[in-house]
Amino acid sequence: MATKITRAFLEKIPKTDLHLHLDGSLRLPTLIELAKAAQVPLPSETEAGLQELVFKEKYQDLPDYLRGFGLTCAVLQNPENLERVAYELAVDNIAENVRYIEVRYAPQLHVRPGFTVEEVIECVHRGLARAQQEHNSSPAVRDGSDIPFHYGIITCAMRFFNRHMSAYYAQLFDVMPHAPAKEVMSVASLEMARSAAALAHQKGIPVVGFDLAGAEAGFPALDHKEAYQYAHVHFLKKTVHAGEAYGPESIFQAITECHADRLGHGTWLFAADKIKDPAIKDPDYYVKCLVDYVATRRITLEVCPTSNLQTIPAIATVADHPLRKMLDANLSVSINTDNRLVSRTSVTRELELVCSHLPVTPAKLRNIILAGFKGSFFGPYGEKRALVRQVINRYDALEKQYLGTATA
Predict the structure, then answer these.
(1) CB–CB of 266/243 below 8 Å?
(2) How many structural domains comprise the chain?
(3) Active-site residue, selected from the candidate residues 102, 122, 244, 249
């Protein structure tokens, strides 16, 4: 008889969230409070109203899903709000025994006159650091009965933007009036990579990675190759939103042109039917080679089940999600929230969803949990190994306590 993985067990085990957007993960009461203070109009001033109109359980399509970001970004335009939201996000993760998060966001979206990209990053860092200090100074961590909390920051460049999306982008279009939009976007991503590297190496802020987000179809990662090359030679880890709204070619490009260490979503990795490049004569063989490359290089997939169900109509349930194929192929897979507010979820809920719809054994779940820690951009390497060992010991003890089994 298969061992039933309980919610109580999922709540207690140490977890990660490697794909976590700051501007999609505010507390709903905080959004309402900050919007009122900043005189940002909301479709409703109640939690129930906003959940009915904006932050829903089901969305019609990706544009419907993204609607709420206009509201959240509008209240994240000053230091106090950014620091507060980052702090609350860390506190909420710590409360459900998430012990490592990588918070990603596009700092250029939060710039205004007198508030720079670097200052945006520093504000988020302060909020996360405050929550970390509170947890790590607790008696449980100090006596070794709990695991310390760590975090990293991933800065995102945008595949596409226009001048109305932020003061930074408006200024960039003003100083490049004759440049093609593609070139303006390439310059913005390169500058983002430069800022990330400078803060990581000169100020010691844990900016651990670089990402590319936004509309995938029609805006290839190749356009941002120079930014990724800069990140690469300055020892930043790289992840790319790829294979979420486009087929396997997007994943191939992320790996070969952008040096991707991880893949954001990677949903259509196995979808030979979504290949559009006429030069690929044997799509099935192409996918087979691509999957094998991802597997052997241990390129971790940042899978976000609820988010995918909400934005990809073709995936009706988790049982239909390519996650099953990913696990069967023994790929390195982490389970993530994407946007805690927009998807109305948590890491525990995502894991419960996966375990209730797929044949996940305690051993398979252990692999998923460890993939999150091992595939993280946390460092230095010696500290990462020590953290993984703590997680293994904690997981094995909890498995025996809650499930009566022992994987190791």
Answers:
(1) yes
(2) 1
(3) 244
Q: Are residues 188 and 161 in contact, defined by beta-carbon separation less than 8 angstroms? A: yes
DSSP H helical ranges for 96-178: 117-136, 139-142, 167-175
* Known catalytic membership, residue 244: yes
- pTM, 2 dp: 0.97
Give the amino acid at 132. Answer: Q
> What CA–CA distance (Å, rounded) separates 100 from 166?
30
Question: Sheet holding 98-105: strands in order across?
Answer: 15-21, 98-105, 150-158, 207-213, 237-242, 262-265, 300-303, 333-335
Distance CA 154, CA 11 (A): 26
Domain annotation covers residue 168: yes
Question: Could you report the per-residue pLDDT of 130-170, keeping only the tens digit for each?
Answer: 999 999 999 999 999 999 999 999 999 999 999 999 999 99
Residues spanned by the domain of 366: 7-403
The pLDDT tens digits of the residues spanning 40-65 come to: 999 999 999 999 999 999 998 878 89
CATH number at residue 27: 3.20.20.140
